[in-house]
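Bug #77: duplicate submission created two jobs. Keeping one. Sequence:
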Amino acid sequence: MEVLTSKAVRRSTRLRVEIPVNVTSLDRMRPFGEKCVALVVSSQGCGFRSSRALPVGTPILLNELPAGGSVTGRVANCLPLGKAGTHFLIGASLYTHGNFWGIPNPQMESSRQAWPYNMFSTSAEVPLAKK
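Kept job's structure:
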């Protein structure tokens, strides 16, 4: 059993990537099916860009994953990207944890050449400006 505290400790590393995934709603009352792009992934979830918003709690299926197969989860959050409201960043919490993304060990140089998707470095990140 996992104990959650007010200062939760991150359980796995988030990687910034661009991975095409197919997302389908498992809730018949909220139909949704779209080819999306995962922008952030970890072993517990992901953040993907979508052209439609999804309500928090919606059960979803992610398939056509690089490692093959599919995985289910739920929408954990949904944020508009930009002011136009044409795209959304949807955070998904996976029901089963693992490397569904097929990401090899990022420390090995040979694995970087074998990875067919964009992976972004975290060393050149610019902090967000405070408003």
